[in-house]
UniProtKB/TrEMBL annotation:
All residue ranges annotated as the Acyl-CoA oxidase/dehydrogenase middle domain in the record: 132-227
A GO term for molecular function: flavin adenine dinucleotide binding
Ranges where the Acyl-CoA dehydrogenase/oxidase C-terminal domain occurs: 239-377
Taxonomic placement: Archaea, Methanobacteriati, Thermoplasmatota, Thermoplasmata, Candidatus Thermoprofundales
KW Nucleotide-binding (keyword) present: no
Family membership noted in the UniProt record: Belongs to the acyl-CoA dehydrogenase family.
Protein name according to UniProt: Acyl-CoA dehydrogenase
Every Acyl-CoA dehydrogenase/oxidase N-terminal domain range: 19-127
InterPro entries: Acyl-CoA_Oxase/DH_mid-dom, Acyl-CoA_Oxase/DH_mid-dom_sf, AcylCo_DH-like_C, AcylCo_DH/oxidase_C, AcylCoA_DH/ox_N, AcylCoA_DH/ox_N_sf, AcylCoA_DH/oxidase_NM_dom_sf
Pfam families documented for this protein: Acyl-CoA_dh_1, Acyl-CoA_dh_M, Acyl-CoA_dh_N
Cofactor(s) needed: FAD
Organism: Marine Group III euryarchaeote
Keyword line: FAD, Flavoprotein, Oxidoreductase
Amino acid sequence: MERRIDHYLERLVSSDSMTFYKALCEFAEEKIEPNYLDWERNHQLIPEDVISEMGQMGLFGVTVSEKYGGQGGNQLDLILMGLALGYHSQSLAITPGAAMSLGAKPLQLFGTEAQKEAHLPDLASGKRMFVFGLSEPGRGSDATNPQVTAKKDGDDWKIKGEKCWSTNAKWSSHVVVHALTSPESKPGYRTTCFIVPMDDSNVSYQEMAGKDLWSQSSTGSITFDDVRVSNDAILGKENEGFKVMAQTLNGGRLFIAGMSLASLAFALDKCRSYSQEREQFGVPIGTFQRVQDVIIDMDITLEQGLTWLIDLTNRYNDNTLDRESAAKVKIECSRKASDHLTMAMEICGGVSSLDEFGLIRHHRDLFVCRVGEGSNFALKGFAARPLMPDITLQ
C-alpha cells in the first residue's frame, strides 16, 4: 500500500525534493526496517555502523554548506529526512536530526569562521557530533536561568553543573553548554554558550537509565566539574546565549512537528491496511462507521499538518518565521498525533500492544514530541503573548 503521506507531499514539494525523500524511504525500508525490531528487543541503541552509513550518505550534513563539506540543503530537506526516517522510528530520525538542528545549526548560525572550519567538515561527514546542553535536573521550561554556571577565572572560564536529556550524548565529540554567566542582568542577557570537548578530563557522561521512549536514541547526563575553557570557546556573544538557544530551537521545533506527523503517517497506513483485512461479524472492521471516523480524522490531520509545516519551513528558509508560529505547529502536530495514536490503537485492539505491530513504539515516542524542544504547556505561554499584549502573562 502506498504511503498516504506521499500523496500529500507530492503536491507540496518539488520533484527534486521528492526524489531525495524517496531515496531515504528506500534506505530505511532496506537497511532499517528488517533490523529494527531486534535492536528494540535487545535494548540496543542505533548501531554505530548504521550511523557511519548515514554519515557516508551525507545525512549529518544535509543543511551544512558545501563550503564545509555538507550537502548545501535547507530546512525543507531536513524536514523531509525526518519524515522519511521517522515513519519507522523517531529514534532513527532524531539521531541525524538532532545532530544538525541542535548540534551543527548553532555553529552555522553563530560560530566564528575559525570555529566553523574546525568543526563543520567533521560534523557534516558524521565523523563527530555536537550535543546541545540545555535541559537540567532542576531546570526545564525556565531555560533563561540555568543552574550550570560559567565564572571568570583570569582569562578563562570555569564551567560547573549538570545537563541532562541530552540527545546524542554518547556519540558526541563536543557539547554546546548553555551556562549562567551574568545572573544580575535582565532576562535574555544572563547566559553564554560555550563549545566544550566531551573528552575533557573534567567532563563526565552517563547514559540515562530507565528511559522507555526514543529507546534507540542516546540520551545522556553530562556533568561539568570546573571545566576550564578560553574565550575562544564562546559560541556567539558573551551573555547572549539565550539568543543562540532561541534561534536554534526555532528550527528544532519544526523538526519535532515533522516527526510527529511521521508517526501519524505510519499509524494511518497501519490502520488503513488492518481495517480492510481484519474481520468481525463477517465483515472487515473498516465497514464500521466508528473505524472510518478514526481513519478519516487521522487523514485530515496529516494533510492539514503537512500543509502548515511545509509553509512554515519555507518561511524559515526565507528568514521570516516567528517563534510563535514554530511553537504553535509543534504544539498542534505533537498533540493531535498523540491523540490519534491512542484512537488508532483502540480500533486495532490487542494487537496494538505488540512491538512487531509498530503502533506502541510511535505511541510512546510521541510523548517526547509533546515535551521536547519546550513542553507544549510552556510553549503555549509565550505563543499567547502577542494575542494579549496589554497584560503580563505568567
